[in-house]
Design brief:
homodimer, mainly alpha, three-stranded mixed β-sheet, 32 helices, disordered N terminus, disordered C terminus
């Protein structure tokens, strides 16, 4: 949703990234700028990514990204090139060495060394604690506000329904829910809880509150933190790939996203809090990074922390720390070294246990949906599970297409100009349609929880409305549950669920992408869970009425508890979520952590795998990649294989028709000539060659370094004038007697720029870019500098060729 | 253990890798050669790794490794360079394109395309099935042989103790164990099961069988598959990093390792089957790869399959598929793309469920040690858990040092010449010392299982020998267990356990590294589990007698089940295994999968983390890295950061005193000159430069390609004689009228060799090597070719500098 307000990102194609010198801001040296208060400001993307060297833009080489993502080395250069003028020396490494050397000298320094070493772990601890606490707060507040739509606690308005009735004397759960302390709005206003009037009043109040929450949410987002909308995962993926969006992880975004997330969830819109929690955790991590020198100054290390924070987000969202780590590894992160694996795991655990000690669900459980199934599954059931997988895949593919189409309409038509109206209309529509149906009226997480639940004997839920065929003469607790014909209540529930399914499928398409925080996990899972439960009950009844048929004989005899509809709901939820996000292992592990039983991994995996294959057959992009492309972020998909047969020479610049590359020679240019060259272009860096004739590559120098060095020299160094020679060589030739002393600038030249030859196949070049995290690379031919290739050139080339290239078979994954 | 027989590997230093042209075999084109029957043959390592260009060796550029590990592209060049003479085109990619294009044409081709796409999954399925089946077979056979040491089933000798007594009529478990069908050797031979004679006969038979098994194992290993010894994990790590050890994963190794593993485990030696199962799974994978063209011909793809197989191995070893995948990711694999993640997971699951359907443990459980704890843990208990972590770390560090020292002694003294004697002596020693103590007499896995077990009321184990203080007046099942004073039985058990701890600690050091298959997981875990159980019982008694003290008050009141000694055993096992292998996340996840409860993750993690930190403080290498270094395998540790401040120019060759690099010029050399150059050196590749003067780099050509091309040309092409010019340029100059026609060889030149500049800091160069999986890289200066740097140069440089460099603080991890 963020791209909307930025004219440069509106057209949604990579091409739009080109000629925007105005909103391309070379990354600031001071990282604190990212923390700048962007409330109400214009949304300029702080783009450190390179513009094509020959366009009107400028290219900028983030050496830090390259060296940093490779080994944590060198980002000192990025942060402040002047402090560390010699390329090839890395500040961070040096700092370690220094500390390590010092530590032998004194105990104080040893303690310093230990504290430095521990700072990473401390940071992880803090991220875990903060994210866990925030997630707990969000859960509690959202519960309270959601209940507020239905009624009020007379003991104290700050109690939610459940808390309000805790002190009640009623014994059964059902009666407890109707405790006298809690009154619906109809009771408060009209004094009665029955009848058409009461229903109408409740309906109206439900709508009023929903609209109020939605209005508040969208207004806050628009006024204070435009980045707070959406799920945030596409942007975080982009950020982790090396792009910088200034303020995206700042404190205003954090505050506003936390508040509006509560409001958006409470408003009853078809959205979840799980995706945005990832964004919240990343904001926490980014802000906490500023407490530690080691992370404040090092872009690459901070990205590792963000990877861990993504794991934390999923960990607190589902109470699944291992699943969270795998989610970060599989879905979010670009570069995930082992060190990050271990730290992510630690942070995810801390966060999960912080959340549990806050205990927002009131059940002392770690996980969002606690499920315990007793019956094993049978091999025959793989059939329906795979069917659910196909459904999930189809829905995922359809949803992505529909949602992207809708977002395009929003961008291209006047609809995009009225985000507040849009949110209000969708909220009103959702509220009006959702209220009459009890399954849509309840929150998404609550619905899923109920659908996952296996019916026990005491369960009063409509979904467990089985005919108690022989409840008195039945064997015991275990068998009394089994083998039940559906009763009237269950049939009614099924109809409501079917309607809820259609409704959820429709409304989620237009909800995701609005200017409120909105996650996709819960709505997707809800769709799948409904479909799964429907199928599960269907299978159950089929088994009951045909338990002598060939399929069911042997394992589904009367009296045996053979089909678990809750498991079907779970499998369906996994399938739909898999279809939308294309998560695989992490999804299965998250689900596994919910049940805690390895038994159910196989059904989950069969469904997830089928879902991914089916969805991939209709388009290889998951919803996050689709949104990344929609917003035109420069993101080089690490999963997809590059399918072109072109060579680097075809993609690099200058093209044949372009003017030649602007280069500096290592000697022979005067200060004036250099300044003229710099002035006449917008590139943020220049290759240095031996001479204009030979074009043999010496190194690469940053525009900024060049300008500052010349400036400093003119101010401080004696005799440096416009006619002074600029010398990049080690040993300058003896100057003529009458010439002014030369300006030696070898110190600012990066003597080890990355090069590939013009004959390198593009697939190899793309892989080098991905693996080394490059932003640009020089191209040589027979040792001579020929051109430059940037990440954006590659993205553009990929986008152009997208249509004509033969698609890899989806099964190939 | 494998390095022992190879003279080149005996000295155990990287230096020894240099001058061995005799056993450096340039990788064969035909992969089937790896399947060659190596039974009884000499152990030559098929080393595709480069030798230094200026030594007597040869350097060899495995383009396939580079391109392959990068994107699966290009290994066609490796497999058969002549078939695909144009670098930059990748066969695999082309094959896809071809298939994708064809698939539009006919349905048959579409089916082919689908089957091609599915072949990866099919392969995974087969690997899972085969490994699971083998693991099941190994389990069953080992059970049977282990029981054979104690007695015989009269109903049929092929039954193990448990199966033999299944049909027995006895009702309690204890009596069942003493069913009449099963007779100890004393009963069979002397007719009595009591008395000193019977004990002596049993003791003797135990020893005889143990020696017989050990003898058989070591003889088989020596005679048929020397690679079958050890755990195999160090070698697999090395293979996955790009090194090839011919026959290491062949069918003979598989067969012999499977058989001898059973024998070694049954012989009662202090070793486990878990590590070797990884090797077995990798052998299965390697053999099954030969069924699929896609994998037979592609080294890089096969390595991905091997990564997945490592996951399968751990999955079947512990019944922990998720843990297995993380083990492969964390500990074994060098390059682990997401695709592999998903496939590993699939294969691991298939294997785990295959194993379960074989049901070797007879309990229908997936996991090796099924544990179910009921009592939660208290925050105070973190203290003892961390203590266990410290113990584990100390033991891990100590074990590694002692074991490596012992292995060095074995290598350097005459001991190494008598492997059979060594195995027999150690077996005899183990048997003699182990028999009197019931905890050492039982197998390692059985012991751990018993130590992990929580005492239930009906438990007759000695470890549960509590005084039944109020068994009749006690509340119920739940509380009857709690708060127990130790009885005489328990005290006796503790003494035995303490002795067993000392014994296990000692004997494992000399056992690991002998010439039998031997894993470390179980012995390490056993040591930790004993220590943990001892501490746990100690804590329990402390709590019982001091339940009013400040520490225990509130959570450990009389009647509450507050301390679970089994949990302590589990934490201790994790700590010791962590100390030895330095696994972290995967270890915690494996343990988590055993219990299935997220509750116990925190104790496990606290202990594992402490253990790793403590162990790292004494030496950063885990046991596998230590053995890799001991054997001198060329392995570039991906975890450790490179700490030198040197530049590439300092490490590359030629050094200043060396003769200049042997290069070809792109034109001007005659066939004779080229042949002379090739003959005079042993390098497996030559850079091509523009001219001897300019030294601008054009490309790189393989020795093999060069020789074959010239040979072919001489045979087939008219007029190619010794005086013909060899031309590597695109457009050759018009030859003089009288000159013979030139030989054009541009087709065999790799026009996109990797280059770095001489000023590149070594830490960046090392990272490029790691990330791109390079074996060598050309070094340029100002566009001119300066030298070459190989992986081996880097390893040597790292080894030389190892002493003087400042060590990174262990907490830094």
């Amino acid at each position: 949703c963020a791209g909307m307000e930025n004219p440069g990102y509106r057209s949604g194609s990579v091409d739009s990234l080109r000629h925007r010198p105005s909103d391309v801001v070379v990354e600031d040296d001071d990282d604190d700028d990212e923390m700048v208060d962007i409330a109400g400001a214009t949304l300029d993307f702080s783009n450190t990514d390179d513009d094509p060297p020959l366009g009107s833009g400028e290219y900028f080489v983030e050496r830090g990204s390259r060296a940093g993502s490779m080994s944590g080395a060198g980002p000192g250069r990025l942060v402040d090139p002047l402090e560390d003028p010699l390329p090839g020396k890395s500040k961070d490494r040096d700092r370690h060495r220094e500390i390590a050397n010092k530590s032998r000298q004194s105990t104080v320094a040893l303690l310093h060394s230990v504290s430095d070493a521990f700072s990473g772990w401390l940071l992880m601890l803090l991220v875990g604690l903060m994210s866990g606490a925030l997630a707990g707060g969000i859960d509690i507040a959202a519960h309270w506000l959601t209940d507020m739509k239905e009624g009020l606690c007379l003991v104290g308005f700050w109690f939610n329904h459940e808390h309000c009735c805790w002190t009640s004397n009623e014994t059964t759960f059902q009666e407890r829910d109707r405790c006298p302390q809690w009154q619906s709005w109809a009771e408060i206003m009209t004094g009665t809880s029955e009848g058409a009037l009461a229903y109408f009043v409740n309906y109206l109040m439900f709508l009023v509150w929903a609209l109020l929450f939605a209005l508040l949410a969208v207004t806050l987002v628009r006024a204070f933190a435009p980045y707070a909308c959406g799920s945030g995962i596409p942007e975080i993926k982009t950020i982790l790939s090396g792009f910088i969006i200034r303020g995206y992880l700042g404190k205003w975004t954090l505050i506003i996203k936390t508040i509006t997330l509560v409001l958006a969830v409470s408003s009853g819109l078809s959205l979840g809090k799980e995706g945005p929690l990832v964004h919240v955790a990343c904001c926490c991590a980014n802000i906490l990074c500023h407490l530690f020198t080691k992370y404040r100054k090092n872009e690459a290390k901070r990205r590792e922390v963000l990877s861990a924070a993504a794991a934390v987000g999923v960990s607190v969202a589902f109470g699944a720390p291992i699943g969270g780590v795998l989610f970060s590894l599989e879905e979010v992160s670009y570069y995930f070294p082992l060190k990050t694996l271990w730290r992510s795991f630690f942070a995810a655990l801390v966060a999960a246990f912080t959340l549990r000690s806050i205990n927002p669900f009131g059940n002392s459980r770690l996980v969002l949906f606690y499920v315990e199934f007793h019956a094993p599954w049978h091999l025959v059931e793989l059939g329906p599970f795979i069917l659910l997988g196909i459904f999930g895949g189809l829905w995922g593919a359809l949803f992505i297409r529909a949602n992207i189409a809708w977002c395009r309409i929003r961008k291209s038509t006047r609809l995009g100009h009225y985000p507040v109206t849009e949110v209000l209309v969708v909220t009103a529509l959702t509220g009006m349609l959702a209220y009459p149906n009890s399954y849509t009226r309840m929150g998404g997480a609550e619905l899923i929880s109920e659908l996952f639940n296996d019916c026990s004997l005491l369960d009063s839920s409509q979904l467990c409305g089985y005919k108690q065929s022989n409840s008195t003469s039945g064997a015991g607790v275990g068998n009394g549950l089994a083998d039940r014909p559906a009763g009237v209540g269950l049939y009614a529930a099924l109809w409501q669920l079917a309607l809820a399914l259609v409704f959820k499928m429709m409304i989620t398409v237009i909800t995701f992408g609005m200017k409120v925080p909105s996650g996709l996990f819960i709505p997707s899972m809800a769709v799948g869970a409904i479909a799964g439960r429907l199928l599960g009950v269907g299978m159950e009844q089929l088994a009951y009425y045909n338990h002598d048929s060939a399929i069911f004989r042997g394992w589904c005899s009367p009296g045996a508890d053979c089909i678990t509809p809750g498991l079907y709901a779970m499998v369906g939820a996994a399938a739909c979520l898999g279809g939308v996000t294309r998560m695989t292992v992490s999804l299965v592990v998250i689900m596994f952590e919910l049940t805690g039983g390895l038994e159910y991994i196989v059904p989950l995996m069969a469904a997830t795998m089928t879902s991914k294959w089916v969805a991939d057959a209709f388009g290889r992009e998951g919803i996050y990649e689709a949104h990344i492309r929609l917003n035109g972020y420069p993101f080089l998909e690490p999963k997809e294989e590059f399918q072109h047969s072109s060579l680097t020479a075809d993609v690099m610049r200058p093209r044949r028709s372009d003017p030649p590359l602007a280069v500096l020679t290592q000697e022979g240019m005067t200060v004036e000539e250099v300044e003229a060259l710099v002035e006449s272009t917008h590139y943020s860096g220049f290759p240095v060659v031996v001479s204009q004739d030979s074009h043999r590559l010496v190194g690469f120098v940053l525009r900024r370094d060049l300008l500052i060095s010349i400036d400093n020299a003119r101010k401080r160094q004696e005799g440096v004038v416009g006619a002074s020679q600029v010398v990049f060589t080690e040993h300058s030739p003896a100057p003529a007697d009458d010439a002014p002393p030369p300006l030696r600038l070898r110190g600012i030249v990066d003597l080890s720029p990355f090069t590939v030859t013009d004959h390198t196949p593009m697939d190899i070049t793309v892989d080098i870019f991905r693996k080394l995290g490059l932003r640009q690379c020089l191209v040589t031919h027979n040792g001579k500098l020929l051109g430059i290739i940037t990440k954006k050139d590659i993205l553009k080339h990929m986008a152009n060729d997208c249509q004509q290239r033969p698609r890899l078979h989806p099964l190939q994954l």
